[in-house]
Amino acid sequence: MVKLVESMAEAGHPARPVLVMSNDPDAGGLAKAQALGVATDAVNHRPFGKDRPAFEAELTKRLEAAGADLICLAGFMRVLTEGFVRHWEGRMLNIHPSLLPKYRGLHTHARALEAGDDEAGCTVHEVTPALDEGPILGQARVSILSNDTPDALAARVLAQEHRLYPACLRRFAAGEREPIWLS
Question: Which domain range does residue 29 map to?
Answer without folding.
Answer: 2-182
